[in-house]
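2024-03-11 09:14:02 INFO queue: dequeued item Asparagine--tRNA ligase, len=430
2024-03-11 09:14:02 INFO validating residues
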Amino acid sequence: METVLIKNLGDHVGQQVTIQGWLYNRRSSGKIQFLIVRDGSGLVQGVMVKKEVAPELYEAAQTLTQESALKLTGLVRAEERALGGFEMQVTGVEVIAIAEEYPITHKEHGVDFLAERRHLWIRTPRQVAILRIRSEIEHALREFFYQHDFVLADAPIITPAACEGTTNLFELDYHGDKGYLSQSGQLYNEATALALGRIYCFGPTFRAEKSKTRRHLLEFWMIEAEMAYFDVDDNMKLQEEMVCFVIQRVLHKCANELRTLGRDVAKLEAVKLPFPRISYTEAVEILKQAGEEFVWGDDFGAPHETIISNHFNAPVFVHRYPTAIKAFYMKPDPQDPTVVLGADLLAPEGYGEIIGGGQRIDDLNLLKQRIAEHKLPEDAFEWYLDLRRYGSVPHSGFGLGLERTVAWLCGLDHIRETIPFPRMLHKMYP
Ligand code: 4AD
Ligand code: MG
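2024-03-11 09:14:37 INFO prediction written
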C-alpha cells in the first residue's frame, strides 16, 4: 500500500492508499463515523460505514481521541462537498498512540492560552497554513537570489560591535569579553560583497526591543543582500523584483493555505512593478495633508507608515530620510547631505516597513567621522574601515524582515503567528 500525503490525494483517486497522521476531529452517527485526519499537509475526512467494516475496526476507531496518532488506509474518492475535494472510504485503521485529553479543543481559546501552548497550537490548520507559507517565502527568496547569481555568505551570529544602534543590543559573555547577538549581518555582508560581488545572508537576528507591538519580535529572521557597484536606485529595483517574485510564488504554490486563512488574494494579485518611490519629504507632505502634526526630522511611527502606505495600493519605497534618524553607515545624498540615500519599503494594508536598506558610505574619512559621532568604538570597526581602505566602491544592500513579510502576505493581525516559536517581550516559553 502506498503511503501518501493528504495534499496529494488528488493524484490517487480510485486507489487504495495509506495516510499517516493525527485525528483532528471525529463525528459519528452510530452507523457511520467520520474521521477527520491531519498530516501537516492537509486535512481529509475518512468515512467508515459500520456494516462495511469488521466490528473490531469500527470499535477501535471509536476509541480514538483528538490528536491520537494513526494510520488510515482506504479508497480515495473525489467528493466536491468534502474538505479539500477528496475523502477516503476507510478500510483499515492502525492506532499508533491514543492521545490524552487534548487542551486545545475545537472551541475558541484566548490568545494567551494558545501562546502558552504554542508547541500544540502550531498543529491547528490556520497555523499550519501560515508556517507552510513562511516556508514557501523562504524558498522563493533563496531561489530568487540563486537565479540572480548571488552567493549565499552566512554572517556571524555573535558579534563584537553593534550594527543598528546600541539601545537594543543583547549582550553576552564571550569568555570574559563582551559580545552581542547580531542585530543584522550587514557589516559582514559588505565585506563578503567586496569579496564575491553579490551576496546574501539569511539568518536569525536579535534586538532587545523594550516595547510590545504587533510588529516586533526580539528574535526574527532577516534576509540581507549586499551588492558591490549598486547605487540606491539599483538597490530598489532589485528589491521590487524580489518582492514580486515572492508574491507570485506564494499565489501559485499556496492557494489552499491562503484560502484557509481567508486572505483576500486580489490585494496581492494587484501588486505590480514598478513600486512607487517617494522621498521622506514627500511622505511628510502626505502626513500633513492627512491632518497629522508631523515635524520634518522625526521618525515615522507605525500609524504614520499606515497613512503613507494607504496612499498607494502597492508597496512604496520611502527614500532620503534625514541623516540624524538613520544608521551611521548610510551615505549622504551628494545633492543634499541633510538626507541619506537610504530607502525603506513599506508594505500596503498597514503592514509597515518590511525592508530597510540603502547605499553605504564608501569614503574612509566620512565613515570614521560617523563612527565617532555615533559614539561607537572605532577599534571594533577597524576591519570595517579596511573595506574603505582597499578598493572601496559604491555599494548598497538591504534587509527584509521575514516575519513582517509573512504577516503581510498571510494577512495577519499580529507577528506572533508568523514564526513557530516567537520571542516577545517577557515571553520566552515554550
Ligand atoms: O531596518 P532594519 O533595522 O535594517 C537593518 O538591519 C539593515 N542593517 C539591513 C541591511 O541593510 N542589510 O531592519 C530590516 C528589517 C525591517 O525593515 C523589518 O522588516 C525587520 O527587519 N525588523 C524586524 N522584524 C521583526 N521584529 C523586529 N524587532 C524587527 N526589527 C527590524
Ligand atoms: Mg528600518
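2024-03-11 09:14:37 INFO annotate: The chain has two domains: 2-97, 119-417.
2024-03-11 09:14:38 INFO item closed
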